[in-house]
Amino acid sequence: xxxxxxxxxxxxxxxxxxxxxxxxxxxxxxxxxxxxxxxxxxxxxxxxxxxxxxxxxxxxxxxxxxxxxxxxxxxxxxxxxxxxxxxxxxxxxxxxxxxxxxxxxxxxxxxxxxxxxxxxxxxxxxxxxxxxxxxxxxxxxxxxxxxxxxxxxxxxxxxxxxxxxxxxxxxxxxxxxxxxxxxxxxxxxxxxxxxxxxxxxxxxxxxxxxxxxxxxxxxxxxxxxxxxxxxxxxxxxxxxxxxxxxxxxxxxxxxxxxxxxxxxxxxxxxxxxxxxxxxxxxxxxxxxxxxxxxxxxxxxxxxxxxxxxxxxxxxxxxxxxxxxxxxxxxxxxxxxxxxxx
Length: 341
Description:
- This protein is an alpha/beta fold.
- Helix content is 35%, strand content 21%.
């Protein structure tokens, strides 16, 4: 009987080495190749023809969920998602199974070899099972309790994500984790129209929700993410049973667009959750302060070492009492806080 050939795809050289060590020492399994990102993996898959892929979700450029969707369309094969975001019942896990993943395996938080080996002790068994065509969804019963196989039901709270260019990958991860009936969402991106549409366009077919460019009078509804880029200018939210987006001034001061939007939510008493992702400038910090004072929920992303800290530092200067989240916890925290169940 031939060995099961596995390719390990992860942007961390250390994690690749640890997974390769575990899999290569298992009977009946061999690692046929490794890759650090989707572009590298795409070329190697065509040459090496692995039986199973292990695929990290948080990679630079194309995310694991995006690449999973591409694989299932072009050359379907068993894929095990290995990610700190794929804990049982999370939006990322649900979306991975919707796209065709054979299993979602939580990436070990500790990178020490002893703890790593203890955490992934059953990974070799999973590789063998999925190679034989089995789909292993340990959380399937819970997922069947909600619409479209999801246990998530939006409570109607509006979500606002404010992001600079450095946070666009995080925006993509949140959208990829959203179920079809996602919370009504406004994406305020510090990017021009071309860049914003390029980011969103790259996700078409990989996300369950609808993403649409913002326009005056647009309804902000469940299942829809409204895209606001720099070319649109300043916007506000008009309260109502279904809130509407209002375009105010295309020539407005770009340094205050987020503050203005968040303040309109507070003044209109619109139930909302807002977050500042990585980006330059302080826009949004005072808006979060106003929203919190009105009873809303808020978070700020703890920036990676390589990213600008302007917004994070502005929030700290104001001493706001809000959630500080790392990249791997944002999507699921949003869904947890807006889940009606």
